[in-house]
């Protein structure tokens, strides 16, 4: 029997390596992609839709060509970036997307000057399906509008902390027993 042991261990090792590779490839953070669905049933609970466009010249052009698709899992907000000439109030560039929480904070929204004179980039975030219909033109509209208070968001991380603490306590207890 003994000569067969290394082979079994080899098989276990290759299985373990395979699992690790598989898990790292499936769970690696990739750019979330839109979910196209032919019916209106949501692909997962709390799925939202956002107007989504890249480098359009106006709000209208953006919305006209926006995809009708569900946002990827993990995105909670709709994000709009609008380059606007504050003197002429002309739109220069509109980008809209589904956004994760790190793209939408009180610090990421608002209007900031660009290197071009009179041109500001105004960013707004909002919560709710297709809430980013309008593009923000000034600091009055370049805001973060949420349906739920923001300070509830960090609570979602607590279960992970409990899990880690629980695991370390369990492993320590197991060490004490053996
Ligand atoms: C932003 O624009 C709106 C409408 O054009 C205007 O009523 C408002 O006073 C502006 N706010 C600022 C801070 O300029």
Overall description:
This protein is α+β, with helices and mostly antiparallel strands and 178 residues long. It has a domain at 53-145: Ribbon (CD59), CATH 2.10.60. The protein has three helices and six strands; from the N terminus they run αβαβββββα. Strands 1, 2, 3, 4, 5 and 6 form a six-stranded mixed beta sheet that branches. A hairpin with a 5-residue loop joins strand 4 (110-113) and strand 5. The chain is elongated. Bound molecules: 2-acetamido-2-deoxy-beta-D-glucopyranose.
Jot down its keywords.
single chain, 178 residues, alpha+beta, CD59, 6-stranded mixed beta sheet, 3 helices, 28% helix, 21% strand, elongated, binds 2-acetamido-2-deoxy-beta-D-glucopyranose, cell membrane, glycoprotein, signal, lipoprotein
In short:
The protein is α+β, with helices and mostly antiparallel strands. It has helices spanning 5-27, 59-64, 158-177; strands at residues 53-56, 77-85, 90-99, 110-113, 119-127, 144-145.
How many strand segments?
6
Point out poorly predicted stretches.
Answer: 152-157
CATH class of the domain at 53-145: Mainly Beta
Shape: elongated
Keywords: Cell membrane, Disulfide bond, Glycoprotein, GPI-anchor, Lipoprotein, Membrane, Signal
Subcellular location: Cell membrane
InterPro entries: LYPD6-like, Snake_toxin-like_sf
GO cellular component, one term: side of membrane
């Amino acid at each position: 029997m003994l000569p067969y042991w290394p082979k079994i261990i080899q098989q276990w090792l290759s299985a373990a390596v395979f699992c690790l590779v598989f898990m790292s490839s499936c769970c690696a953070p990739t750019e979330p992609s839109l979910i196209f669905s032919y019916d209106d049933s949501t692909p997962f609970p709390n799925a939202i839709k956002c107007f989504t466009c890249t480098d359009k010249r106006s709000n209208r052009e953006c919305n006209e060509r926006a995809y009708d698709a569900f946002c990827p899992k993990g995105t909670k907000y709709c994000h709009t970036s609008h380059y606007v000439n504050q003197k002429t109030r002309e739109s220069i560039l509109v980008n809209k997307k589904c956004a994760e929480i790190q793209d939408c904070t009180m610090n990421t929204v608002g209007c900031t000057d660009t290197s071009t004179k009179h041109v500001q980039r105004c960013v707004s975030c909002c919560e709710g399906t297709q809430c980013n219909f309008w593009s923000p033109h000034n600091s009055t509209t370049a805001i973060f509008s949420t349906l739920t208070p923001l300070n509830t968001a960090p609570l979602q991380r607590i279960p992970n902390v409990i899990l880690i603490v629980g695991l370390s306590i369990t492993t320590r207890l197991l060490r004490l027993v053996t």
